[in-house]
Amino acid sequence: MSTELWLAVIASALGTLLIRVVPFLWMQRRLGSDTGLNGIPQWISILGPLMIAAVLGVSLVPVNPGVISWAATAIGLLVTLLAWLRVRSMGLPVAAGVAVFGVVLIGVALAG
Amino acid sequence: MSHASTRSVLKGVREAIPLLGGYIPVSLSFGLVATQAGLTTWEAAAISLLIYAGASQFLFVGMVAAGSPLWLVVAMTLLINVRHVVYGPNLASWLPPSRHWLWLMHGLTDQVFALAHTRLPQLPEAERFSWFLGAALLAWVVWIVGTIVGSTAGEALTARWPLLGEIMPFALPALFLTMVAPRFTDKRWALALSCTIASALFFTLYGWSNVAIPLAAACGAICFYMVKFHPGKNTL
């Protein structure tokens, strides 16, 4: 890589780090201050769960979209949700969902 | 480090393992793409080590390979990552003050944020720092190792186990579903969350994956503020 390209990498890395760290430190300082500004603004606390929902939406698209992979996604999600409703934890539902998703994809591949 | 801290670090590591279902295939792909764009293995690894932000790394390498001006490459990379601005403030009240956040926040990716936002409030205060350390470090190290492996053996791996690259990423939607499901507490939240998920899916399918997360969250927020239910009719 040329020097210019290394500088671009470092600028991108520093900028990304600042985007992550500055708002965090700002909020910690705000929460610890005596000026009365010690609550998280409502819009930020609402955006938190919505960002997670958005990451879910983005990750729903299969690697190779097609009828089979979409069907496997729907079945896998249903199994994950049913397992979550039963145990209310993360590990088992995720393992069950991935296993069923994989079984559907491999089953169809073997049958085809 | 005390025995209790080590246990919390290991707890963070254990609970971040489902994230690897998404991290491994994507980092392998990044290593492969970076090599195909003319970078060496160590250059690709340096990008993963220093920038550590999936979508923007692909954009960075793609724009460099296409010969775009470097100021534009940096600007676009930062523009894609600007959504991370709201992640830190959402975690700030659960994490103790420490000078280590200056470098530890480097590990605050979309996935680590989602996991931390769900788990931190459930953990005892004394465990939170070590838990975050374990979860964030595992994800970061796997991302870098995945890039190196993808760069050196990506083609051989994807040729040998083509389905594995399709199955492992399903761990991410499955994990995020278990994080979002408990937040369907009333009709207002159910509507806002459903609107966000549907918008994100729509934007991704129509090729706007780079801006899908902030745009979809904005759609959900508009929905949250615009649609209100009568107090008696808001329960699910």
Pick out its properties.
heterodimer, A: mainly alpha, 2 domains, B: 236 residues, mainly alpha, 72% helix
Give the total of beta strands of chain B. Answer: 0
Mean pLDDT across the residues of chain A is: 90
Order of helices and strands of chain B: HHHHHHHHHHHHH
Estimated structural class of chain B? mainly alpha
Count every beta strand of chain A, where a strand is a DSSP E run of 2 or more residues. 0
What is the percent of helical residues of chain A? over 70%
- Average pLDDT of chain B, rounded to a whole number, is 90
Task: Report on this structure.
The complex is a heterodimer of chains A (112) and B (236). Chain A is an all-alpha fold and 112 residues long. Chain A has four helices and no strands. Chain A folds into two domains: 1-42, no CATH class; 60-112, no CATH class. The termini of chain A are far apart. The model of chain A has no long low-confidence stretch (mean pLDDT 90). Chain B is mainly α and 236 residues long. In chain B, 72% of the residues lie in helices and 0% in strands. Chain B has helices at residues 3-16, 20-36, 41-50, 54-65, 70-81, 87-92, 101-104, 110-119, 125-160, 164-167, 171-180, 187-205, 212-226. The radius of gyration of chain B is 19 Å and the shape is globular. Chains A and B meet through α1, α2, α3 and α4 of A and α2, α3, α4, α5 and α6 of B.
